């Protein structure tokens, strides 16, 4: 690890594993293109050891057998430690994946902090054990016990948020967790591991395995895993589901999206542009529920295009460590090239390039940057309207009437999120009820409310995170029928 970075964050400069690691994960700065850390990568023996330790913690250790209140107290201790190091965590995430420091503080770290508190509140009222009157006269005791050993595999775009929404409900339920972070964002996961050590969890309850896709594949297909929780692309999700199926392990998948923002004819262009800027371009558009298809009334298309172009053109693109920066680099050179290829494709498909393009932003000659890019004159058959680009690229599609707008929104392989913008809230809710997604916003992007379930339909996956449903995914329900005394 870069010594200055390690000293600043107060974390060790030499990460190692006890198993057979022979390779390293190299973490590259998206701003400079230079390495900032090297971390020992897990090998097959490390995966086996971590799963074995988790298995022992579940099968014979104290963690699953604690009163839920004791597990809640442990997570609250973690939240206190986490809060004290929020600044360090935000700086680390910004350095390793390029999120602007203000976004890293507000969302990359602020959201996980909120989620910890919210899950603890939910756990305090969760029905871990209830007694029901049975239909046949017996009392029925319903218990919700930990599902067991959880493999949690997360991507790089919102690393701490995605870790916490898996790790915390699993811990509260009494599970043990083996976490596989993305190679690009290994450092924040290891900093979290240090915090967990301070909490003093029993041995084997949480392990972190840095590494590439081969490490993740061995983990999700391991016979010692009871539940796989995966966030990533739809293609990878299919492979994960197939690997877990061999062991009949439970699976939840939060996958890709191509979410539509339906703009009704009574909406205000400036209000819409401000909302879309936040819901679509934060984190350089590298958010699974970003609103990337902007579906506008044909009669007012130019008004909305002009307002969007003005907002996008005013974005400050640059060094993620600068508090003035609004749009940082993409996470990797490969991701930058992928987005550039889609921008070129959109022009070949016949869409009109309103602003942006595949050249580096002005004043930047290094780093994995892409200009915020807006297309208009597109239709829903174009690849830029159908495929997840995962960058700061928005596509405007015109519609004839409300039915056509809903049809365009639903004409997608994905179904993760969406929104509607209107001066009439009730009208917006009626539209929301017709769109085939797991989450939706009226006059806002989806807010990731910690008390509301989050997840998708169609190629966006299955299962839910957040809310009470976020705990449901980590428990097994057992019914015990008790004969009444005669």
TrEMBL record:
Pfam family membership, one: Aldedh
Catalytic activity annotation: an aldehyde + NAD(+) + H2O = a carboxylate + NADH + 2 H(+)
CDD domains in the record: ALDH_AldA-Rv0768
Chain ranges of the Aldehyde dehydrogenase domain: 21-480
Domain of life per record: Bacteria
Keywords assigned: Oxidoreductase
Enzyme class: oxidoreductase
Coiled coil (UniProt feature): none
InterPro entries: Ald_DH_CS_CYS, Ald_DH_CS_GLU, Aldehyde_DH_dom
Active-site residues, as the UniProt record annotates them: 254
EC number from the UniProt entry: 1.2.1.3
PROSITE patterns: ALDEHYDE_DEHYDR_CYS (PS00070), ALDEHYDE_DEHYDR_GLU (PS00687)
Listed PANTHER family: ALDEHYDE DEHYDROGENASE (PTHR42804), ALDEHYDE DEHYDROGENASE-RELATED (PTHR42804:SF1)
Similarity comment: Belongs to the aldehyde dehydrogenase family.
The protein's name in its UniProt record: aldehyde dehydrogenase (NAD(+))
Species, as recorded: [Mycobacterium] fortunisiensis
Taxonomy of the source species: Bacteria, Bacillati, Actinomycetota, Actinomycetes, Mycobacteriales
């Amino acid at each position: 690890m870069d010594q200055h970075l390690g000293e600043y964050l107060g974390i060790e400069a030499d990460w190692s594993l006890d198993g057979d690691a022979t390779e390293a994960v190299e973490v590259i700065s998206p701003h400079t293109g230079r390495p900032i850390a090297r971390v020992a990568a897990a090998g097959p023996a490390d995966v086996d050891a971590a799963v074995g330790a988790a298995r022992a913690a579940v099968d014979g250790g104290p963690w699953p057998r604690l009163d839920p209140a004791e597990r809640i107290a442990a997570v609250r201790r973690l939240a206190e430690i986490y809060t004290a190091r929020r600044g360090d965590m935000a700086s680390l995430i910004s350095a390793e994946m390029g999120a602007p420091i203000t976004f890293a503080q507000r969302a990359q770290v602020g959201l996980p902090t909120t989620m910890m508190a919210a899950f603890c509140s939910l756990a305090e009222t969760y029905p871990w054990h209830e007694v029901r009157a049975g239909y046949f006269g017996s009392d029925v005791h319903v218990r919700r016990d930990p599902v067991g050993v959880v493999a949690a595999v997360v991507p790089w775009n919102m690393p701490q948020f995605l870790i916490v929404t898996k790790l915390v409900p699993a811990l509260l339920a009494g599970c043990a967790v083996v976490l596989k972070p993305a190679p690009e964002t290994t450092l924040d996961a290891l900093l979290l591991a240090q915090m967990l050590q301070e909490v003093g969890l029993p041995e084997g309850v949480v392990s972190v395995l840095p590494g590439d896709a081969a490490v993740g594949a061995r983990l999700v297909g391991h016979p010692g895993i009871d539940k796989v929780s995966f966030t990533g692309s739809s293609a990878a999700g299919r492979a994960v589901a197939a690997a877990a199926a061999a062991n009949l392990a439970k699976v939840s998948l939060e996958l890709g999206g191509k979410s539509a923002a339906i703009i009704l004819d009574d909406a205000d262009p400036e209000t819409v542009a401000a909302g879309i800027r936040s819901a679509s371009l934060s984190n350089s558009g590298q958010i699974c529920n970003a609103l990337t298809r902007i579906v506008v009334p044909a009669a007012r298309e130019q008004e909305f295009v002009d307002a969007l172009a003005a907002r996008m053109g005013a974005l400050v693109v640059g060094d993620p460590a600068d508090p003035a920066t609004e749009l940082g680099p993409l996470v990797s050179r490969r991701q930058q090239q992928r987005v550039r290829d889609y921008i070129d494709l959109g022009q070949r498909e016949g869409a009109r390039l309103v602003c942006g393009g595949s050249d580096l932003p002005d004043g930047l000659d290094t780093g994995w940057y892409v200009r915020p890019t807006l297309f208009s004159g597109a239709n829903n058959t174009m690849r830029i309207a159908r495929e997840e680009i995962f960058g700061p690229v928005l596509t405007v599609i015109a519609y004839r009437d409300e039915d056509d707008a809903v049809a365009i929104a639903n004409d997608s392989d994905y179904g993760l999120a969406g929104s509607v913008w209107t001066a009439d809230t009730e009208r917006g809710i009626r539209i929301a009820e017709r769109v085939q997604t797991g989450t939706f916003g009226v006059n806002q992007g989806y807010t990731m409310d910690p008390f509301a379930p989050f997840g998708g339909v169609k190629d966006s996956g299955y299962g839910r995170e957040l809310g009470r449903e976020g705990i449901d995914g980590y428990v097994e329900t057992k019914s015990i029928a008790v004969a009444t005394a005669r």
